[in-house]
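Practice problem: predict the structure.
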Amino acid sequence: MATVMRSLHVALLVSDLERSLGFYRDLLGLPVAPRSLNFPGYWLQVGEFQLHLMQAEAWQAPCPRPDQWGRNPHVALQVDDLSVFKARLDAQGYPLQMSASGRAALFTQDPDGNIIELSQT
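Answer:
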């Protein structure tokens, strides 16, 4: 029987690569990984996993459940100190929703509305 071995990457659409790079690299601290493709984009490293940013003109991520961001498509990242990331996001004016479950997690949106969960587990 064939087996799925691991997750390699998630690709996110963004309208402005440099603005998004500022969010993921500069605010969240994800390092840029080498990339060999010839179309615009960035690969960011998260442990052995990668987050791929691909440009899509005038992209705005859908959010059909604006009252509970965790019930929308999202990318979840584990962090070592949620309070530090919450303070960084607050200082830069990014929207936040704390996890409704009561666990140590928050949801935010990148500049294009892609929902990102930060969880301290």
